[in-house]
Amino acid sequence: MLDTAIVGGGLCGLAIAQGLAARGERFALFEARSRLGGRILSGDTATPGTPIDLGPTWYWPDSQPRITRLIADLGLENFAQQDADTVLHLKDPDAKPETLAPGPVHAGARRVSGGLGTLIDALAGRVAESDIHLGHVLMAVFDHGDHVELQFLRGYEPLVVRARSVVLALPPRLLEEQVAFSPALDAPLRQIL
């Protein structure tokens, strides 16, 4: 039996896995996709060495101290988002864009060199490959009091995992729509999800 099962291999799940690994705790991370990163995905462009972020792109040090600290702790290089003097704003897709007043519009935003995918790679690099399980779709969660039973589909094969605790690092909407819980979640919690 695992001490902790983490379901979701995005930024949150990986950050938790990295923390547990650093403390030497027994855990496993399960991700439904064939890749880590969740909503964070950096892709290649036609220009080698110039990745493009296909999900989140910026972070703001003044209002996001935790992600700022994580990026610094991982030793990732970052740079200020360039703010051009002229900014175009498209309000109506059938009209020409409007020119906004000159000045910065990104309010101190920064970017990670190499794209935010490097953040995912850095976190995953601190977790043993044997603790990461891709292609595991969570189907059901059973609370047995002293442990939790998770039912996954791995391809077409069912898999049961037992853990003393579980972290569900998934979008709440997906949990509510796609995962069966026993005992069932109460109506107010389902509404919040």
If you had to describe this structure to a student in words, what would you say it looks like?
- By secondary structure, the protein is an alpha/beta fold.
- The chain has five helices and 13 strands.
- A hairpin with an 8-residue loop joins strand 3 (42-43) and strand 4.
- Helix 1 packs parallel to helix 3 (117-124).
- It starts with a strand and ends with a helix.
- The mean pLDDT is 92.
Distance between the termini: 28 Å
Q: Which structural category do the helix and sheet elements fall into?
A: alpha/beta
Largest sheet: 7 strands, mixed
Which strands sit side by side, in order, in the main sheet? 9-2-1-12-11-10-13
In terms of per-residue confidence, which ranges show pLDDT below 50 for 5 or more consecutive residues? none
Alpha-carbon Rg, integer: 20 Å
In total, how many beta strands? 13
User: Helix fraction?
Assistant: 10-25%
Shape: globular
Mean of the pLDDT scores?
A: 92
Pattern of helices and strands? EHEEEHEEEEHEEEEHEH
- The fraction of residues in strands falls at 25-35%
Number of helices: 5
How would you summarize the topology of this molecule?
Layout: E1 2-7, H1 11-22, E2 27-31, E3 42-43, E4 52-53, H2 65-73, E5 78-80, E6 87-89, E7 98-100, E8 110-112, H3 117-124, E9 132-134, E10 136-143, E11 148-154, E12 157-168, H4 172-178, E13 180-182, H5 187-192
Parallel strand pairs: 1-2, 1-12, 2-9, 10-13
Antiparallel strand pairs: 3-4, 5-8, 6-7, 10-11, 11-12
Helix pairs in contact: 1-3
